[in-house]
């Protein structure tokens, strides 16, 4: 068994005390040796963290101990190493950047469990729609799915016309972990689509529970793994090396920090191009040192996971003392 875990989750639930909860959350992660990224917003939580099985279990219990998040569904994967180099717990306006004027707590697409989703894959009346970015579906997607040439979810309104003729069809949306589809499916309903569904838990949960059948290629993830295998039944490779054109399901970030394009590049071309996606990027003075992975950690700027926590700890202690004081 691999010695570390990566857990992915989200939860739409109102959070009035975002700053205070951020401080507590950050402190818990530090005390339990967890690394990763957690976004806290007035609309809920979105996180991916990594650590030992024991530390990840403690984290899941911590999140669920708050009644606002007691129903959180975690996707748990085993990994050889901790999947992050840093810990960031941040407050933002949204838990997934969308700029879509919708509220999944009010209305969203019907949730399909992985087994239900699998049963619909061969239904000719079902239209699969990938709600991920272009570089994500370049390396992997479900057979027959409609994809958009968009770089992020904020661009969805620019592409909705591409499926406008399908408004009365059964639309099934999917993404990596499910979070984008909560808003994307809500947006489709807002725009007049009548029968909209979403894969609950996304591609990752489908792979864990149903073996990933009919997902072609690999699934792009936002940690140092870059891509993961989800199809253990009928796997295929759909992407080609950006340099030589050979089949390649290995995704990298261009070594030129100013470019940083996400592209498939095979090991041979990666070595020859020193991780760059073009001759221009290879010659660029801002090119980073290529270590064979194609994954780059941003400059640390003296980063330490305890940054800012001294003042946060004081605030947490004051808050807890106030809670313990008699009324």
TrEMBL record:
Name the UniProt record assigns to this protein: tRNA uridine(34) hydroxylase
Residue ranges constituting the Rhodanese domain according to the UniProt record: 122-215
The keyword Oxidoreductase is annotated on this UniProt entry: yes
Its EC number(s): 1.14.-.-
SMART domains in the cross-refs: RHOD
Species of provenance: Dyadobacter psychrotolerans
Family annotation (HAMAP family): TrhO
Listed PROSITE patterns: RHODANESE_3
SUPFAM superfamilies, A to Z: Rhodanese/Cell cycle control phosphatase
InterPro entries: Rhodanese-like_dom, Rhodanese-like_dom_sf, Rhodanese_C, TrhO, TRHO_N
Protein task: Catalyzes oxygen-dependent 5-hydroxyuridine (ho5U) modification at position 34 in tRNAs.
Enzyme class: oxidoreductase
Domain of life: Bacteria
